[in-house]
Structure formats: structure tokens, C-alpha cells
Fold each of these.
Amino acid sequence: MTNTGLPQVNDGLWPATPLDEKRDKPSTAITSSPDVEPRLIVYRDPADVRTSFQLLTTLLIVLCLLMLSALGNAYQYWRRPDRIVVDRSSGQVLMINDRQYGETSAVKMMPDQPSEADKKYLVSEYVRLLYAVNPATRAADLKAALEMMVPQSAARFAAYLKDHHILEQQRAESWQAVWTPQDSSVDRLDPYTLRVIGKQEITKVINNTVVRETKQLQLTIKLVTDPAGRNDANRRMGFLVAAIDYKELGSS
């Protein structure tokens, strides 16, 4: 007879069923997790952040200093040089840059105004380069004389020398000449026209014979103002030769 009010216990006389095994084992909750990687959160060290910021600030300051240095160097390169005028007879400083400190009996500061003396000096140098013939420096002298002329006039004068074979003749005859200026004056009606009178003493060799010749020349030279101002080409005078007229007064 079976007591239905008591719990059923397997006493080994019959095999246990799967239901009995499940009932005998303690219940366990089983959960499945999806395949998701854990999230990694990184925190910066505050000291590291401060160091990076300080380095960046220092780099920007250095770049700014380099830019200022480059601008300063460019300014020093392109600015006008310092101008200091000293009267060597008295040792007094007359000018530093554009600031004047007085004048002396020997030196007076005034705006640059090319004068008649500048014109006469330029013309005397130009004529000397043309008519004082030195075989050792003839090419350089003619080059300097052409640079003292207006470019178009210089081209015409060079073509004249070439067409008339003047330089070839002087070289073939071993020309040497001494130029002696005798008079130089500025035209009363045209202050840019100068008249020069001088003597050219020529020594040359023709047919193996030394020949000496003296010429009295009158030159009329027209000047113009050089747009470039005073420079080495115009002997720091500020003028250029525009035209030259040649007249021989006598020869012997």
C-alpha cells in the first residue's frame, strides 16, 4: 500500500527518472551575456596636461621671437645707412642721420643742388676720357665715357666710332695723347650747355716713323639731369652727357 501523504523517496528499487534528478538538484539561474567588448576609459594625468600646455606655450613664444628677429634683420638690411658729417678741421659733428648740430666756417649743410661746378667737373672728366689716349687703359676709359652718356646717345656714339674705324686706327698707329684743358664755360642762354677749349698732343707711329701732332679743339657738350641722381657712373655729379659737338680750331 502506498502512502500518498509522504514524500516519495527513491530507495533504489527502481531507476530514477529525469524528473526526479531535476527535482533533487538545486536550481541554478543561467544567464547568457552578448559578445560585447568592455569599454576602456583613459584618464590623463593633470601634471602631464600642464606640461604639454607649457611646452606648447614656450614653442609659440620662440616662434614669435624668431619672426621678430627676422623682421628686425630685414629692417636693418634695407634701411638707409647712418650718415655722420664731421668737420675734420675742428672735429665738430655737424650731422647724425637727419639731425643737424650746427655749422662751421668750413662746412655748411644744405639741400643737394647740383651746381655749375658739378657740371664742369663732369664735362672735364668726360673729355679727358675721350681725348687723353692711354693704350693701356683705352678700352676702360671709353667704357666709362659711354656710361656717362644718355643710353641712346651712347649707342649712337659707339656706332660712330665703329663705322669710322677710329679705335682700329688708333690701335694700329699706337696712339698716345695728352689732353690739356684751357677753358671751360657755361652757356649764358642754356645752363646745361658747356663749351670746352683744350689742346690734344698726339704721338703716333706711321710707317715706322714717330709723328707728333697738336690739335686745338673746341667742344660743345649738352648735359641733362640724370633721373637716377648721383651715382658712380656720372661721377656723383647727377648729370649725363646728351650730345657732343666737335670743332677743330687748328693743328700743327
Amino acid sequence: MGKVRLDFVTNSSASSFIIDKNKFDGEFSVEGVFQMLKSLYKEAGELYNEVVTYVAKKYGLTEKGDYYYNKKDERVYIDDFFHKISDELREKYDVDSYSLCYSDGCEHRLDEYKTYEDYTADGNTSEYGFSICDYRLDSTEITEDTIETIMWYTDPTPGYVLETRSALLGLTSTTYDDLVRKEMLKLGEICIHSQHGQIDISVVPRLEKLCVYSCDHMG
């Protein structure tokens, strides 16, 4: 189980998942992590469909879109019904009802990470999506996501990480990036960043098991 930080030190809806290389099967790369995410989305979708069918059959309901309908044609949101019988679902499927709240995102349908990057860059999602960064590569950009992740998981955070580049007298931006990259690599080599919690809640519990550090809401 990866380390999950529970206290709140920032004011952010960002999330980060630093992948544990020792728990990862397959090619440990940005593309490899993306393909792993696709498989987790597929598993979450299959479980959701299984539970939807089980509940409908047991309680005599009919599924239509996001709703169950009873014989009186009264409807209830499927996720809300899951929460009402959460203890039953936890006992049968060993999963929290909130983790069953699956949304059919684009991630698992796109072939490769580059396709996903292009898809989000073209404004095809309501939020900014997520990014997968390999900090072993000098070409990986140091961003606010990087800084915030280091701040969240290190205590105390190295002072230079908190400084702006312009305030670092005598340091070029390249030198600054190298210093921050080394600090990030102490945590892990590949990290999934999201500024708006764009990893689906149904995927998070599965993903956290593959992380050395993880937080779905860093704030």
C-alpha cells in the first residue's frame, strides 16, 4: 500500500499519484502508466456494470441511463441507490459505494498517451485532464504541479523549491529545474498529476495500491 497523506496543507483540488516502480508490471514509462490506467478504467467499468445488473435484479428495478425505475415508474439515481445499500455492496464486492460512482471518461478509449494529450489540448474535456510525467527525462517540464507535489509530500520542503526563479540569485532557470527534478526523484520517477481531480473516483482505490505516494485531493 502506498503512503497516503491525510492532513491538509494547501488549498487545492489537485491530485497526484507517484507510481511505485516495484509494483508496476510492464514497461515503466509514461506510455506504460497510461496503458495501466486504461486497464484500471476498464476494470472499474466492468465492476460498475456488474453491480448495476445485480442490484436491478435483486430489487426489481429497471435501469435506464443513470437511473433505476421501480414498477411505479418512480426513479432514483443509480449512485444514490448504491449509497443506500452501501453495507450490502461492501460485504458482497469489498468496495465502498462511492468507489462505484463510475463516469465513462475518454481515457480508456484513446489508444495512447499522445492521443490523450492531443484530445485534452483541443478542449474536448470540461477540465484540464491529467498529465503523466517521467522525471527521469530532462525533457519533462517542471511545472506548478511538480512544485505542489513536492510541497505536499516533503516536510520540511527545501527552501529553494518554494522560491520563484527570479528570486534565486545566481541560479539559471535550468539549474533551478535540475534542483527541483532531483527533489522530485527522491519521491518517485513517474507521477500522474491532475489539477482538477480528473482521475475517476472509481479508479482511485485501484491506482493508490500501485503508488508509493498518493493523494486524491491535495488541499
Amino acid sequence: MRTALSAIIIAAIAAASPVLAKQAVSHKPAAAPVARSGQVTPPRTQNKAAAKSEDEKEVAILAALDRGSAATPASFPDSVGWRLVEDPATGAWLGMPEKLVPRVSASRMGGRWSSAQGQIQVETFRFSEASLPALFEDEKKAARRQIEASVLRPDLFVIAGAQGLKSFFMRAEARGSEVRGVTVLYDQATEGTMERIALAMIGSYSAFPDPSAPAPPGLRRAVEYGSAIVATGDGDLVTSARLTDDCRSITVPGIGHAERIAADSASDLALVRVYGARNLVPAALSGESGGAVVDARGALAGMIDFKPAIVAANGDSAHEPAKRVPVEAIRAFLKAHDVSPPTVADATASAEQSMVRIICVRK
């Protein structure tokens, strides 16, 4: 309507003044060039910056894929809470900024992690029957999406771009007809911080981990097994604090459910209590995590503390040797929490009877 009104005004002025009409015609915008048959119109100069940005994002994606699970960023601050986790819904492994996405729940097709206000969202998905190339094309055409970069390989694809007011990265992998993947969305206002984290997540993602292969360094499993030392016959156990971190439930097979009462991260000790336990054989104080060290008399001399592998800045894994937590440290820890273990070993009991298995199930 505004264009029509402008034309009427110009026509009226032109009728009154041929000079003004000539000036008006000379200021008309130039018509766009018409491409001849078989020719392609060259791209406009204003798109060069956007094309360069897309190329840079694709290079960043390829670099993240090349680094793979060794891409654990050593320079991420503690406030990010970077950790490799196992997704119980799909069986995949991926790096997760746990402190940024503390809310965990189930989604329709997998698992979901999100920040308190939803600025950051992570969702995994699994299709038992799907075509990877077809899914790639469908996801690129999804509503409200603007694709900025994409990579398609025979066994995986990565798509990055904008979705509404959020930026996103998606990675999917196929094995046979099954497809598993992850989508990372975050507010565009956090692009400066989150793009690097999202790339690390995409790079670390492993859709079909080999169950017989060693777990990658620092992996936080959805279900983890370990050992505990019986401290009292009433159900007080000593184990690794790291093993019992973030457990939704702790179970002692054959005995019952347990609860973590206290923990000391400096010594990596945790006090776990099995309620209703009777006739447990306590170890005399003179895992796997929490493995016991027994002296020649059968008394507990300490506990083996297995340190997880640390990923160096260059991507190589460095393993700290296992060290023994001395019995004095265990005694002091138990005393601080009003637990009094025996100091003399039961001559009729073996050291193995004072060890129990524990299972940690995380959310």
C-alpha cells in the first residue's frame, strides 16, 4: 500500500513538473540482472562474510570429529563441570557440562539435560529403524531452522545452525538400521562460551561404544560397580567417595539398599550405611575402587585408591598410579562420624568376608 501511495505522489509531482519527473526516474533502483539460459548469477558481495563464517564452522566441526573422545578440554573451568557420562536411555557416551545442565529427565526418544531456566538443552535420541541420509535431509529441512554448516559421512552426520532464538549442533550415527544421536541447543546470547562446549560434546559423542573395550578416561557410568570394606557389623561400610558420587541409589547385592552418610574428597573416602544389616564381618583396623589391603595377621592395613586417568592438554591420557589410603586415615574418617570399628581381627574370618560389592545407579 505504501509503494502504491508513493507511486501516486510521484506521478502527481511529475505531472506538475517534467524536471522532477525526470529526477524521480533517474533515482529508481536498478533492476536485478537476469540470468541467461545456462548461466548462473554470481553471488552478491554481501554474502561473502556469511560464507566465510559457514566455512569456519564446518572446519571446527571436522576438527572436533577428528579429536573424538580424546577431545576432553583440559582448559574448561570447574564451573562447567565437564565429565564423560553414559546415557542410560540410548547407551551412548558423551561429554557433558554437568554443572551447566543439572536438570536430568527422560525425553520421548532418549535422555534430557537442561539448565535451570532452559537456556541450554541437551537431548539424546534413538531410532531402531531409520535411514541416515534421509534423516540428514529431514533435519536440515526442519521448521524454523537455518543451517549454517553440515557434514555427512557414510556412518554419521553433523548439522549446525540456528533454530528460533537458539543455536544448535546435532550429531547422529548409524549402525545397520539403528540411528542414535544428540542435539545441543543454547541461547544465541551464550554463543561465545557455549559454541566451544557444544563442539566438544559433538566430538566426544560415541553412539555405539564397544562394551568389551576399556571405558574412556573419566567416564561417569550410569551404573558403576565397586567394593566396600565392612567397618561394623551393623552395616557401616567404607568405600571410595568418587565411586559413590551422584548415585541415585546404592545397593549391596544380597544385603539391601544403602545410603551414603558422609564423604571426604581429599582422602577419597565415603561412609555408606546398609540399614537392617545383621551379622556382617567387620574388618579389623590395626575397592576396583575401595579394594582392601590386608597385613600378614589379617588386619586391614589400608585401602587401595584407584585414580582415574587424566586427559592431558595434548589429548593423551596420563594415568596416576593407584595409591594406598593408610589405615590411620580410615580410622580418623570413621571416628569423625562416630563409627568405632574393631581393632582386632576375627581369627575365624577371612579378609574376603569383610569385603562386599556395591552398585551405584546414577540418574
Amino acid sequence: MAISIIALGTVYSEILKLPAGELMPHVCVGLIVWAFINSIMLDAGDLFVGSENYIKQIRLPFSLYAFRFVLSKVIIFAHDFPIYIALLLYFRIWPGAAALLAVPGFLLLVINGMMTAITLGIASARFRDIPRIIASLTQIVFLVTPIIWTPDLLGPRSYLASSNPFFHLIEMVRAPLLGSAPSAETVTMAISITIINGLIATSAVRAWLEIRWRLRFLTDRRRRFTNAPSSTVPACSLVRRPAFSGKAPKTAP
């Protein structure tokens, strides 16, 4: 991660004609936060598929698997965070008290990560091609999101950045760590994204539970029918009665 930050920061500072001391921290925080988001989106497909044995043997809330999954990503994020501190010391940058706003911003990011992991985990358990689609989409999102470039470079087309939900999620953490509070638009968009993610995740869990209940009901019903003893079945139901023709039966002479 450190090598990528130094290489991209140095190259893009020359391409964009920006001072390295200004662009390097921007790229550093952007890449660290993006690595956290990207790892969740890429690995969420195996969230429930990889825990298949636990799900079949023990009844646990699905949120517990998502929490354990996101916690492992938070630990990786904590290992990358010292790179940001090293850049602050090298360029002698002090974000001030605004850096404390990164804590609620990161918590909001973690909540979105958990709900996204649940949604993608459930969808990938049904459709196994979704992880490949997500892997292709994340490459496009990385290029169109202001991670290694600043949104003011778009000029009059800056709306392309403001309409990108990933930009606002990253900015909730990056802006405080660079010494400024997130804008009202960023906060509003981040909260709206969280609500939408919550609704989608809740709908996905309900649909999965309904499907599991139906499958379990049909399985139990079939099992009871196949294992039912023959004595419980009335004998009259096994004998086909002749149709009544309306004529008296013939008697032997």
C-alpha cells in the first residue's frame, strides 16, 4: 500500500501539475479508504457461501457473520493507517480538531459495509456470477471516483463527482483527516446511502428467510409423507370401488 501511494502520488502530482505535499495526502487517504471499501465488495460474495457449515449447524443472526467479516477489514485498515501518519510527519501537516470528525464518518462507512456485505452475500449465494461482475465494476468505479485526482479538476462538470456515492463515502473520512469538515451535501448523501443500503439489506434478508422457510416446509412435508407407516393410511383409500351403474346385481340361480 505504501509503495502504491508513493508511486501514484508522485506520478499524478507531475501529471496534474500539483504540489506533492498537497496531492500526496489526498491520494493516501483516498487509497486507504478505497482499499477498505473495495475489499468488502470483492470478498462479500463468499460471506455466506464460505460459512455454509456454520449456518447449517448453528442458528446465528446473519448480522454476526457480516460483523466478523467487516471487523477483519477494519483490522487491515488499521494496519494501513500508519502510512497516513507518516505522511503527516513528512509534510508537516496538522489536520487539527477536524480530524475527530473522521470517527463518525468511518463508523458510517462500517455500517454501510456490513449492510452491503449482507446484500452481496445473499445475492452471491443464489447467483454465483455476481462476484465477477462486482470485480469488473470496482475497476470502473476506481477510475471515475476522485481518489487519485481532485474533483475540482472537472471544472463545470464537477456534478459528475457530486453524483458519485462512493465519493461522498470516501469524503466522510478523507475531508476530516485533511483538516476540513465534510460538506452538508456529503453528509446528506452519506446518510441517504446508509438508509437505502439498510432497506436493501432488510429486503434481501426477508426474501432469503422466506425462501428457506418454504424449502424447509416442503422438505418436512415430503419427509412425513414418505416415512408415514402403512397402517395410518385407510385401507378403503387403497381399493378402487366400482362405479354404481344403477342396476341390481345379478344373483346366481
